[in-house]
Description:
- The protein is an all-alpha fold.
- The protein has helices at 2-14, 29-53, 57-84, 92-110, 115-143, 147-171.
- It starts with a helix and ends in a 17-residue tail after the last helix.
- Residues 4-10 and 12-23 have low confidence and may be disordered.
Amino acid sequence: MIQFCSLLFALALTGVGAAQAADKDALTEAQAMGVMLMSNAAEVQIGQAMAARTADPKVRAYAMRLLDDNLKANRELLGIVENTGILAADSKLRDQRYAAGMKEVGALWTTEPGTALDKKFLTEAVEDHVEYLEIIDTRLLPSATTEELKTSFTAMRATMAAHLQEACQLGAPMGVDAKGCATQPGTR
């Protein structure tokens, strides 16, 4: 699994063979692919960190679900790369998502295990998923012109909305007060 994660990061980081477009609000389809691959790969690392560090079985199960769902999503995206030839391209947004994900992974590994770690993880999960849903709606779906990629992004959006809802439910007893839980935005 670690080799698969390394492959995903390498593919998402390099933008192999894809032309780099000017980074405006609109992304190319290749850039949208890069953002989604990178976001999923970061979620895999976050899930791995929490699955290894939490003592709460419900939080561990949620972390494992993040890990499994995001690995599955990236396998699907890699299949789309093979079928369509759309290669992940670099973008400012992809780089921002990568940096934010790695900062979160670092914070999870340096926070002492226990309730504070679980609360930090679930708070970040809520905030991240609210942001991911907005990015999908406003940047990725509008950039997807290939039907296969649109379908994949739409399915990943539904999974992320479910992750958001679960993080809110798990975090409520811990006092997670992250914007996004009150209204469950993005869960259409």
